Amino acid sequence: MRHHAVKTESSKPKLVFVGNGMAGTRTLEELLTLTPDKYDISVIGEEHFGNYNRIMLSPVLAGEKTIENIMLNDDEWYRRNNVVFYKGEQAVAIDRVKRQVTTRNGKCIPYDRLVLATGSTPFRIPVPGNDLTNVLTFRDIDDVNNMLQLSRHKQHAAVIGGGLLGLEAANGLRKQGMDVTVVHAYDAILNRQLDKTASRLLQDTLEQKGIRFLMNAATDSIQGNADNEVCGLNFKDGRQLAVDMVVMATGVQPNISLAKSCGLQCDRGILVNDVMQSFDPAIYAVGECVQHRGQLFGLVAPGYDQARVCANHLAELGIARYTQKALATQLKITGIQAFSAGQFDHVPDSEEITFFDGQLGHYKKLVIKDNQLVGAVLYGDTQDGGWFFELIQQQTDISPIRDQLIFGKDFCQWPEQATAPLPAAA
């Protein structure tokens, strides 16, 4: 006669999240909606905060919002949902045989299913002086607090990188009263998100706000003073710039060190299949740490799509698959409207329709291929951005409204026999 041991702890499978950012927490939220009682859930988060809206750090730096304003889930939310929250803990090892995660403080947390949402780390350009005091990155709440503190007694900041994050950092520091110079390696800012015309309009607007630009500038080294604090930048063409603070906004790299250390297959990111599983079927990954079908992801929208698929699979519904979609980007600087979506530069066999109002500073470019809208760039007036993005995503035949399309949704009349695109909520 066989005797079964009586379990004193919960017999529910254990689900552990490593990472408390936007993609990981959205996965948790989706799972709790689908099946709130399926797992015993633990979350390991390095930061000493609950989950917050990382994309709203720029308004915090600009003084338009507070840290409290951008919090999404506080400690009480975790308690209310019976989630064990290891706040301020860093996962340092995964034992895939014993199925447990070890933290820097020595905690061993067992799992049956594991979700890696380790995000990405800011890239520091590999030049001498990149580790000097007051050389910062712009990634989390601590970075913002450091910048705000330094802005009170430093005068001149250089922001290396003229992408979305760099421009938002520059605007925030300027609003804190600093002299700000954006150092960019190319001849146009937001060169991945805008075409040359929109980029020039944006630069003009930012210069009117008092932000200076140093273009085609490749940083050769960062100078330090006797106190090991940054005091200047040297460029490869011989130019120099005196500064007392540097913010590097030169991109991010997937944070895959934990995954690699336990033997998971990685390339530039953690390799996942269409249900967000790694090569170990007990381990999933979502967000900026993953690589799916050769692609990396730096925006929130694909992370949320991945979260839905991952939660669906963890709930054992097994019907969702992740597919990559066209992406849209929008600059988060109060008073400046810039939007882009899809493919908008040098698209083969395409047609471009442009509109420019010099007096208002409004510019639009639409890219059409095979009677479909495939890309859009808007500057100054972005109210139709969401609608253009729907047309791109749904691959709508726009031939019935082609001649009115550039003027926006309100000017487009669909013939009765044509089917208008469904609204986003459909």
What's the structural blueprint in terms of helices and strands?
Blueprint (H helix, E strand, L loop, with lengths): L13 E5 L3 H13 L5 E6 L5 E2 L4 H5 L9 E3 L1 H6 L2 E5 L3 E5 L4 E4 L4 E3 L2 E4 L3 E3 L12 E3 L3 H11 L4 E5 L3 H12 L3 E5 L12 H13 L3 E3 L4 E6 L5 E6 L4 E3 L2 E4 L3 E3 L2 H5 L8 E3 L10 E3 L4 E3 L7 H15 L13 E3 L7 E5 L8 E7 L4 E8 L2 E8 L5 H10 L32
Parallel strand pairs: 1-2, 1-9, 2-5, 9-21, 11-18, 12-13, 12-18, 13-14, 20-22
Antiparallel strand pairs: 3-4, 6-7, 7-8, 10-19, 15-16, 16-17, 23-24, 24-27, 25-26, 26-27
Q: Summed up, what is this model?
A:
The protein is α/β, with parallel strands linked by helices. 21% of the residues lie in helices and 28% in strands.
